[in-house]
From TrEMBL, chains A, B:
Keywords linked to the UniProt accession: DNA-binding, Transcription, Transcription regulation
InterPro entries documented for this protein: Homeodomain-like_sf (IPR009057), HTH_RpiR (IPR000281), RpiR-like (IPR047640), RpiR-like_SIS (IPR035472), SIS_dom (IPR001347), SIS_dom_sf (IPR046348), WH-like_DNA-bd_sf (IPR036388)
Domain of life: Bacteria
The organism of origin for this protein: Bradyrhizobium aeschynomenes
Protein name: MurR/RpiR family transcriptional regulator
Residues annotated as domain SIS: 140-277
Pfam annotation, one family: HTH_6
Database matches in PROSITE patterns: HTH_RPIR, SIS
Domain called HTH rpiR-type: residue spans: 11-87
SUPFAM superfamilies with a match to the protein in the record: Homeodomain-like (SSF46689), SIS domain (SSF53697)
Amino acid sequence: MNKASGPTNYDELRGAIAQRHRTLSGRLQQIAEFVLDHPTDVALGTVAEVAQRSGVPPSAIVRFAHALGFGGFTEMQQVFRSRLVAGVAPSYKARLARMKSEEKSVLGRQPAAVLSRFVSEAQSALAALSQSVHARELDAATAILAKARDIYLVGLGGSFPVATHLAYVLRKLGRRVVLLDGTGGSIHEQSHAATRDDALVAISFRNYYTDTARLFAELVGRGVPTISITDSLLSPIAEGASVVFEIQDMPEPALRTLVAPMCLVQALAIGLDLAVD
Amino acid sequence: MNKASGPTNYDELRGAIAQRHRTLSGRLQQIAEFVLDHPTDVALGTVAEVAQRSGVPPSAIVRFAHALGFGGFTEMQQVFRSRLVAGVAPSYKARLARMKSEEKSVLGRQPAAVLSRFVSEAQSALAALSQSVHARELDAATAILAKARDIYLVGLGGSFPVATHLAYVLRKLGRRVVLLDGTGGSIHEQSHAATRDDALVAISFRNYYTDTARLFAELVGRGVPTISITDSLLSPIAEGASVVFEIQDMPEPALRTLVAPMCLVQALAIGLDLAVD
DNA sequence: CATAAAATGAAACGAATATTCTGACCGCCA
DNA sequence: TGGCGGTCAGAATATTCGTTTCATTTTATG
């Protein structure tokens, strides 16, 4: 039965698995998902190990290899191993390719060059973030959120994704969140119930939405503790805030990747969750 | 006999071999030179294979392992294998750092430590992104978006911020965008008008929303060109898509920073804008 | 509902593996 | 020359491995 031979390299194998995934039966689908998620385990493990980690009997692993056209598990494993040996010395090749694409970034209207440009820009934005944010601000913000009954979030326009992400994570962690998105009325109506026992997280970058600024001023006036995430200490949501996170060098709205504020709000939410235990 | 344990990583092993090389006896020196020249063979081969290629009997290989402080060949082989997995997986370093910080969970609970952890995780996610996304896929996706009359976007739950960000940027660039958010009815009603002259960008990660999957299948069936951003080739929005961007190693929903997909959609939008001139 | 077909999992088989053991070999010094 | 410590290669062994088999369950089909 060794006549039939399956894919010969890892990419082909992935394609073959994805293609046949629907037609495979339950157990085999389960194995397909596992091997795509843990290719290294398959490359280095034994049948018994792979079987145990994926929660199936060993015979099912062999059946899976047969279904893909291999003569057995060992034959399929060779493909996974080829991925490992190919990846062991990628540094030179990858760097060469990267430098080439970065060179072309001057000419570079090609989408690949655009991507690598944004990636490197995001990298430096993250580096700047961890340097500019201090522990004192993080601690203060965490304390405010920990005491808050309801957490109000506002971020309009280009900052809306950041607000929705923070809302999502906080809700996952069991917090009561009011996301001010303005649907079905004004954000002022939505925030009417906010008191000094609650908290507001405001996110806004140039050009600042006047709605965000007005709402911020109103809640500050009512004594609501406020955390601002913005790009300047002179922004309309900086003065009066309990804590200000300043994220500098934000590009113009259409060119933002938002990675820095996304990372920050993530850390705020998780840090809050870890702190209250 | 497991008392003696040799070096635990490849660099230590190389140092140990170089150091003891003089004191080793003839056959063992011969083996030492071979394993330093062919580490991959040692990592993936059997004792018999390594013995044959290096021109020594199998028992000599085992004695060599013993001489280095290992309990046997298998134990030494683990070190050579660790070298392989370290080279292929860019997230290896990040996971290591994560485990370390989780070990130090006492310090790791401070918000500042949480932030730096997410930052470093985001860094490696970006590195993995630029390595896994190929120019071919970017070009194909750009071509689809360029031809589209209306661009439909769907991303629910944790992926919603990505969808809103893409919608924002595309609208800034003058594209006609329909963001399927389900407000005021089902997303199926909102997408009723989509035709093969339009395009759909679907974003979904584990656990996949069934609404996203259903909508995706429906529009694919209607012949609408589709770009999928997901975390597995086996995800419900992969099969039938015109282009699939696979972003691997996405953490569990509450711990995602979304930096990789955010960066990708940004590059897609800007790349589209530059390409149509 | 009855029957056939396919899929599944536990166990057993044979092959291949890493390791240990034994006797022979070599250089060294008295 | 004759013993001696260390090294060696090859056979012996116990273990582990991949694969197959088969009874049972599940699923599809009439």
